[in-house]
Write a structure and sequence with these properties.
Length: 337
């Protein structure tokens, strides 16, 4: 008898149908006047008295299982039928889906990468978390260089840090590839700086590296001119100032005239009418030696573009913080890009 109960229990559990008639047959088989449950209840008197209580409980459980099953399948079948028969209103206007937009920084990064791709550069990327060798040492930073100061760098431990610039990617590429090299490295960088309208602790750079035989400062100048014309049009004023970076010699910085105040002076250009958008220079021979490239045979130039500053000028964005707040009202203005 107990064996029968087990068989019935599994029959109920496994029963499936999407047909109401079949479901009714199933219900009658168990719950009908001549059904299995009545039959089982009638058998109670044949059970030895000490097992009766247990047997009674078991058939009650079986009964609830049948009732549950019937109820669940009925609801399923009816809801499927309902959705099949519900009428389709073809005249109803489509649901309006708001499209996302690309972030202005992503738009400009892509634009700049495309500009350099046109003259043969390919993209290389490196990690956000770097070590001392790639971020500083290999790039000719002496041990006590001010840029290593805790104020500028987010250290993870003594030797591990969030990269402060994309220049380490130059080293990673030169270590693993032989010249000629023409690469651009877009990416995020991190500096422990106060957040203001013109500076942020996270920003983006695009690094460019060209290494080949007979590469000269004039080649760099040509590349810069091409890039400025492609990005800002033929009439934007620029100036190249001598500067210093440990990994380039000679080094320079390029400024463009500030479009936010038309050169009159504002907080974005620190009231000078000029905004620095990149650092550049001829790759220092020490750097080439650090990665096993012979500086007597090869020379190169490198450029590091600050993407936020440049984007700020392209779209006359008065506050750099807008790029990081993800305020929909700001981002929606770039929907068509
Ligand atoms: N890595 C420098 C910085 O973040 C920018 C830079 C300057 C990159 C000169 C270069 C370069 O490739 O040649 O301040």
């Amino acid at each position: 008898m107990i064996k029968n109960l087990e068989i019935y229990t599994s029959e109920i559990a496994n029963f499936k149908t999407d047909n109401l008639e079949e479901l009714n047959q199933f219900r009658l088989k168990f719950l009908g006047k001549k059904g299995i449950l009545i039959e089982l209840f009638n058998k109670i008197k044949e059970i030895p008295p000490e097992e009766r209580k247990q047997f009674g409980q078991d058939i009650n459980i079986l009964k609830s299982a049948v009732l549950d099953k019937v109820e669940t399948l009925k609801t399923d079948i009816e809801s499927k039928q309902h959705s099949r028969h519900s009428t389709l209103d073809v005249s109803r206007s489509a649901n309006y889906m708001t499209l996302g937009s690309r972030h202005p920084i992503s738009v400009v990064m892509k634009q700049l990468c495309d500009t350099f791709k046109k003259i043969g550069y390919t993209i290389s990327e490196g990690p956000d978390i770097e070590d001392d060798w790639y971020n500083f040492e290999s790039l000719n930073f002496t041990e006590d260089h001010p840029a290593r100061d805790m104020q500028d760098t987010f250290f993870i431990d003594e030797k591990t840090l969030l990269r402060t610039h994309t220049s380490p990617v130059q080293i990673r590429v030169m270590e693993t590839h032989k010249p000629p090299l023409h690469i651009i490295c877009p990416g995020r960088v991190f500096r422990n700086e106060a957040i203001t309208a013109r500076a942020h602790c996270i920003f983006h750079q695009i690094e460019l590296l060209c290494v080949d035989q007979n590469v000269s400062f004039a080649d760099m100048r040509q590349t810069l001119d091409y890039f400025v014309k492609e990005t800002f049009g033929p009439n934007r004023k620029t100036r190249l100032r001598p500067s210093y970076f440990p990994f380039t010699e000679p080094s320079a910085e390029m400024d463009i005239s500030c479009d936010i105040c038309n050169g009159k002076g504002c907080n974005i250009c620190k009231y000078t009418g000029w905004v620095e958008i990149l650092g550049c220079g001829m790759v220092d021979p020490n750097v080439l030696e650090n990665v096993g490239i012979d500086p007597h045979i090869y020379s190169g130039f490198a450029i590091g573009i600050g993407v936020e500053r440049l984007t700020q000028q392209l779209y006359k964005t008065k506050d750099i913080r807008l790029f990081f707040e993800n305020d929909i009202r700001f981002l929606q203005q770039f929907e068509s890009m």
